[in-house]
Design goal:
The protein is an alpha+beta fold. The protein is built from 3 helices and 6 strands, in the order βββαββαβα. It has a 4-stranded antiparallel β-sheet, sandwiched between helices.
Length: about 130
């Protein structure tokens, strides 16, 4: 359980999003940079990343957030800020910009099923490697 000044919570969100046209661009240095940027965003927004998997054509993020943040806000933060930061830092250097597709998946998991989501992400990561 986590607390804020006015709430005790255990809210975990599984968010999945893809690059535009589901291109397999999240490999090598690009994947490492995107992963680092996602961790930066979580630190800046005081969010806890429980698990993160960057696959060539999609990202699985399992994140804990206080109740004041809607899942749509979290998805927009991670997608919008990550593409801006990546493109600002690396697009001129590499010539390749990161663009995300418009949609995303968001699901919730309480304490009991959190382990299930983590195992799913880890199993999914192992299958894709």
């Amino acid at each position: 359980m986590k607390t804020t000044r006015h709430a005790t919570y255990d809210l975990n969100y599984h968010i999945v999003w893809i690059p535009k046209y589901r291109q397999s661009v999240l490999v090598g240095d690009v994947a490492t940079r995107v992963r680092d940027i996602i961790h930066e965003i979580a630190d800046e927004k005081d969010l806890e990343i429980i698990d993160l998997t960057v696959q060539p054509n999609h990202i699985h993020l399992f994140v804990s957030s206080p109740p004041k943040h809607a899942p749509s806000l979290l998805a927009n933060w991670f997608k919008g800020i990550s593409s801006r930061k990546y493109n600002h830092r690396y697009a001129d250097h590499d010539g390749e910009k990161i663009k995300w597709a418009r949609g995303y998946y968001a699901g919730t998991a309480g304490h009991v099923s959190s382990e299930t989501v983590e195992k799913y992400i880890q199993r999914h990561e192992a299958d894709e490697q």
